Amino acid sequence: MRTLYPEIEPNNRFNIQIDSIHSLYIEESGNPSGIPVIFIHGGPGAGSNENHRRYFSPDHYRIINFDQRGCNRSTPAGEIRSNTTQDLISDMEQIRSKLKIDRWLIFGGSWGSTLGLLYTQTYPGYVIGLILRGTFLARQSDLDWFVKNGVNRIFPEAWKRFINHVPTTEQDDPVDSYYKLIQDKEVQVRLDAAKHWSNWSATVVSYLLSPNEFISHDPTDKIVCEVAIETHYAKHRYFINENQILDNVDKIPDVPITLIHGRRDLTCTLDASWDLHKAISGSELVVVREGGHLAGEPVMTDALVEATDRFIEKLA
Fold first, then answer.
1. pLDDT at residue 134 greater than cutoff 90
2. Which among 128, 166, 186, 305 is placed 20 to 30 Å from 50, CA to CA?
3. Does any domain span residue 177?
4. How many angstroms separate the CA atoms of 199 and 158, rounded?
5. 29, 74, 110, 206: which one is catalytic?
6. Are 127 and 158 members of one domain?
7. What whole-number distance in Å separates Cα of residue 154 and Cα of residue 158?
8. How many helices (H) and strands (E) does the chain have?
């Protein structure tokens, strides 16, 4: 079974002032002459970390990591102004241009897969391949599964804690209610909402791990920032049209595409990767029988590293 490559330090860290509000954190690792690959983190609202460099052979890949607007080390933290999917796609293109990369490999999971697909449909000529994990197509049904009617039937006790934090009259649209709470002027209201949203998300995302394997040590203010971005995107239905990705699948270029999905993923269900696979002729779908949602699960890590290793020959 493959594991992550050994820890490495970035060759370069820098920030780009992307507009009058936002500054993006970006880093490069691995071989400066290797295959360019951009790692697109999930969320929306999370961020990149040191392990995200380790899915790729540092001898063969030029690894680009960045934190999306308002996320992690990008500033201002949690900022939702001028923060849309279209802005993020533009940011990726500015990163590619600044780093003088002609074409690159797209690697993303969950929300990162969404953004990777939308970037590819916008700039198909700059993409040499895609490796996507836990496809999220950002359809209304995908969002409803997570926050309204779907996985709540599997974790009813956790769901009750989550949904009961909002007024009964607003429980038909928990996203809108949590969005308002996380933007409240009172600090404690924001903190309580962030904790409830984060606890629900962690319950669903990490259910295959033991409690000791998924303990968040993030400070509360960071969790508030993450949930602010996540609810902002969910409230605005990810700033795309319903079924936009599948409706524009013909814009995806004829390049190697591997979709990796855990059969036990309860956050982003397997039907999304299946629908995408059926729509893209020549794509490869790898279903990980024991896998869930998280890339850090050993069986998921194995599948992802195996894919990046195979792409070295595919893209040679």
1. yes
2. 128
3. yes
4. 8
5. 110
6. no
7. 9
8. 10, 8
pTM above 0.85, yes or no: yes
Question: Cis peptide before 76, with omega less than 30 degrees from 0?
Answer: yes
Inside any domain, residue 34: yes
Look-up of token digits 């038909």: 172
Active-site residue flag, 33: no
* 275 is a catalytic site residue: no
CA 38 to chain centroid, in Å, comes to: 12
Average pLDDT in the 162-185 region?
A: 96
* Domain span including residue 247: 12-138+241-314
265 counts as catalytic: yes
How many C-beta atoms lie closer than 10 Å to residue 200's C-beta? 23
β-strands 127-133, 104-109 pairing? parallel
Answer with the one of 238, 267, 285 that is the final residue of a domain.
Answer: 238
pLDDT, one tens digit per residue, over 211-236 is 555 555 566 889 999 999 999 999 99
End-to-end Cα separation, the chain, in angstroms: 24
Rg (the chain; Cα; Å): 19
Render pLDDT for 152-165 as a digit per residue (tens, 0 to 9).
999 999 999 999 99
Domain identity same for 148 and 245: no
Residue 1 placed within a domain:
no
CA distances from 290 to 5, 188, 213, 275 (A): 22, 39, 17, 21
Say which of 265, 273, 277, 283 is annotated catalytic.
Answer: 265
- Residue 233: both structure tokens together: 């995107």
pLDDT the model gives residue 221: 86
Tokens 């709540």, located at residue: 152
Domain count, the chain: 2
Contact 202, 151 (CB under 8 A): no
Q: State phi, psi for 17 to the nearest 5 degrees.
A: -80, 100
